[in-house]
Amino acid sequence: MLRSEGGTGEFSASGEPLSFVPYRGTREARQLLGVTGEQYEAMHALPRSVGESIPGYNSMDALSMLEEKPIHRIADQDWISQCKELAKADETTSARDVYTTIADSFQQSPQSQGVKDSLKLDLQNEMAELGIDSAEEMAPYRPRSTPELPLVIEELDFGKPPPTFYIGIASRH
Fold first, then answer.
1. What span, in angstroms and rounded, lies between the C-alpha atoms of 151 and 156?
2. Is residue 162 part of a domain?
């Protein structure tokens, strides 16, 4: 708990307040906001293509936020590219590397640094809730129908990313 929530102050706020909704509720959220799925896509912190290979993951219950389609594509571009390469080679990687790859990909988006930090924290929390140890080997990508991304996106410099926090919980094995 944060100090502002009555806690002891052992934790400090980071990121930016965001509205997340379980994936199953994104259609209703779009309706409330008066936008369409063509304009705003459901963006998961732990991408479905990664989560679907994790026992206990349910994409319909996973939290997501609505994001403009072009921004979502930019945020996904790097992790999709890197994880697809590992999948093609039929390789696994550590959960820590999966986290870092996705977090670094968020960093490339034109979102505010606070939004990027919040997505990284949500990614860390979701992996922890699924009981994933940072050293655990995992399949980084479960191929499914994913629209192709533009080949070139202008590089943006958002400065140095915040410190990365790693999950330190026992493995499910």
1. 15
2. no
